[in-house]
Amino acid sequence: MSSTEIQRNIAEGSSRSAIEQPALPAPAPLSRYESQKRRDWNTFGQYLRNQKPPVALSQCNCNHVLEFLRYLDQFGKTKVHLHGCVFFGQRDPPAPCTCPLRQAWGSLDALIGRLRAAYEENGGAPENNPFGNGAIRVYLREVKECQAKARGIPYKKKKKRKNQIKMSDEAKQSKLS
């Protein structure tokens, strides 16, 4: 009730009390991440319900998650060249080809992270989390490597040597002096 409504009720002699209980504050709007996590969780739940026969969340395992990731590929927007394609391994192909569109590795990786968090927030035990299963990590690594080869992009983790770290610390010290 607004202050003008309270004043009007007082002036009219309303039987309602002028001192109202404070309204509960509206919940803060969800962050983009939280909204996306909720949407992803609902989508995965719908996917499980649409299975023949439907799969209860308590019965969900890493195989269902892998099937879900493969199912999502049909909605992807990333061109992944096949081994037989003349553009395989080229970063910027000069012409279109018939290779399939897939979900990008980074999108799948982020999706699994959100679903892993949502699983535990919705009462799932961390040790039973199908999104944290090793098979999921292997699948994501294979997708990453396959897409990198198809686009001609090397994904190699650079290892830092201890000597380089010590030298950079010494360089910082000499700049400060």
Polypeptide structure, described:
The chain is mainly α and about 180 residues long. Helix content is about 50%, strand content about 0%. The protein has six helices and two strands. It has a two-stranded antiparallel sheet. It is globular and about 65 Å long. About 15% of the residues are buried. Mean pLDDT is about 80; it is low at about 1-20.
> What kind of sheet is the major sheet?
2 strands, antiparallel
Strand content: under 5%
Distance between the termini: 65 Å
Biggest sheet: strands side by side, in what order? 1-2
Number of H/I helices: 6
β-strand number = 2
Can you give the helix content as a percent range?
A: 40-55%
Average pLDDT reading: 81
The computed structural class is mainly alpha
- Model regions low in confidence, pLDDT < 50 over at least 5 residues: 2-18
Tell me, what's the shape? globular
One letter per element, helices H and strands E, the order comes to HHHEEHHH
Rg, Cα atoms, Å: 27 Å
Oligomer: single chain
Explain the layout of strands and helices:
Layout: H1 3-12, H2 32-49, H3 62-72, E1 78-79, E2 101-102, H4 105-121, H5 134-151, H6 162-176
Antiparallel strand pairs: 1-2
Summed up:
This protein is 50% helix and 2% strand.
List key phrases describing it:
2% strand; globular; 6 helices; 177 residues
